[in-house]
Structures are given as structure tokens and as C-alpha cells.
Design a protein that fits this description.
The chain has helices at 33-41, 111-115, 130-153; strands at 19-24, 44-46, 54-58, 72-73, 78-80, 88-90, 97-98, 102-106, 122-127. The chain is of the alpha+beta class and 154 residues long. It has one domain: Cyclophilin-like (Cyclophilin, Beta Barrel), CATH 2.40.100.10. Strands 1-8-5-6-3-2-9 form a 7-stranded mixed beta barrel. The model has no long low-confidence stretch (mean pLDDT 90).
């Protein structure tokens, strides 16, 4: 890349974005409708106790009636609801298994945006489908490919 190269705005990630897309998780259907509604209707604050393992969120807790479940595989972006009812979004250094109910998974295209948020910043969640999340990830990959091509020519 050469000095003075600047990425076109339409190819840049919008790090100011505060709405994070979420695909329903494995235990989605087990959560009471009131919890699902509360999860999507409120704004959460990223806790100061967040780190590369997980972003702990502050807000109005969900009922967390499901308690603990047998451990199962989890991935980066999984949103677990521990007994206190406040979500934890698993991040880059998260464990590979977990036993808390999983209400959703952050769309892969939004993970870099979430990862740049600092403690004290606010976010909201928006439900999306697997198909929509896959389209967003393909658009993101295409933008990166275009940026790489533009940078190598400048």
C-alpha cells in the first residue's frame, strides 16, 4: 500500500454502528416471549468487566429461568444468558464450550464492529436470519477484496 491511500467510504466498516445483528441461537425457542422482547427492545451498555473472552452487558436482566444446561460447543459471537440474566457475548478468546442458555449469535459481519466497542458504549440487538447474515458476510468479504485490489494498484 502506498502513502496517501484512502479507502472509499462505501467500502469501510461502520464502526459507529450501534445496532448489532443477531441470529437466533440454539435455545432461542426455550426463552419466554417476554425475554426475547426485552432482549431486542433495550439498549445494553458494555460492562467494564468485559475482555477478549466475553463482553458482559449491563441493562434490564432477562428472567434467566432456564438455568444451567449441559455444556455444548459455542463459537465467537454466541450470546449466553447466565443465571443473573445479563447477556455475555463470547469474543475472540472465549471458551469452546458453555452451559448457559444461548439466545443468539452475533452475525459474523458485525463481530468486527462489536469488537471495537469500549466499556461504557451502548449497543442494541436486531434479529436477522441466517441467509441475511450470510449475505452481509459476503458483502464484507467482497469489500475487503476490493480494498486489497485498490491498495495494491495505488
Amino acid at each position: 500500500m502506498h502513502a496517501g491511500f484512502s479507502a472509499p467510504n462505501d467500502l469501510r466498516l461502520d464502526y459507529a454502528k450501534t445496532t448489532i445483528r443477531v441470529i437466533p441461537g440454539p435455545q432461542w425457542s426455550l426463552f419466554p416471549e417476554s425475554d426475547v422482547g426485552r432482549f431486542f427492545s433495550q439498549e445494553y451498555t458494555i460492562s467494564r468487566s468485559s475482555d477478549r473472552m466475553g463482553y458482559r452487558l449491563e441493562g434490564d436482566p432477562l428472567s434467566a429461568e432456564l438455568g444451567l444446561l449441559p455444556s455444548e460447543a459455542v463459537c465467537e459471537g454466541t450470546i449466553q444468558i447466565p443465571p443473573g440474566g445479563l447477556p455475555i457475548v463470547l469474543m475472540a478468546d472465549s471458551p469452546t464450550v458453555g452451559g448457559y442458555p444461548k439466545i443468539g449469535v452475533v452475525a459474523a459481519a458485525d463481530l468486527p464492529i462489536l469488537a471495537q466497542k469500549n466499556p461504557g458504549e451502548r449497543i442494541r440487538f436486531e434479529q436477522t436470519t441466517v441467509e441475511s447474515a450470510q449475505r452481509a458476510l459476503r458483502r464484507s468479504a467482497a469489500s475487503l477484496f476490493t480494498l486489497e485490489s485498490l491498495a495494491s494498484k495505488s
